[in-house]
From TrEMBL:
Belongs to the NrdR family. Its cofactor is Zn(2+). GO terms for molecular function: ATP binding; DNA binding; zinc ion binding. This is Transcriptional repressor NrdR. One of its GO terms (biological process) is negative regulation of DNA-templated transcription. It comes from the Bacteria. Negatively regulates transcription of bacterial ribonucleotide reductase nrd genes and operons by binding to NrdR-boxes. The keyword Cytoplasm does not apply. HAMAP family: NrdR.
Amino acid sequence: MHCPFCRHPDSRVIDSRTSDDGLSIRRRRQCPQCGGRFTTVETASLNIIKRSGVIEPFSREKVMSGVRKACQGRPVTEADLALLAQRVEETVRQTGASQIDANEIGLAILGPLRDLDEVAYLRFASVYQAFDSLDDFEAAIEQLRIDHARGAQDPGVTDDRE
């Protein structure tokens, strides 16, 4: 790590701490040449492989943007969207892979979105899963009803599709 003050090619780590979200590490460093102190933030990279084959870095903002469209007119706040995007990122990072297909991101969105707002879930799923008939909607709605009935019988049961 080059010193930002004198460009010396080395620095010494004085302190390391995980950041608030637990996904990055903050390090306080000191330059042995000039004595200047500075902070670096380290994160593990996570890349998305799009259908076209293009690889780009994961973006919570892109997740929020895609879900925001499905939530239009629904009682969903920006804070809700930010929390959903964080849950999606945590789910994807737990796979341990540094590159993941865009399709997997969509699958990771479905569970938390369903918990957040079922209408938004149906909207997103209809586009993401390419519903092409009323039967597809009916099947999705029927599955939601079954899951509601199951949850009403045993509120401690959770859906493990996330």
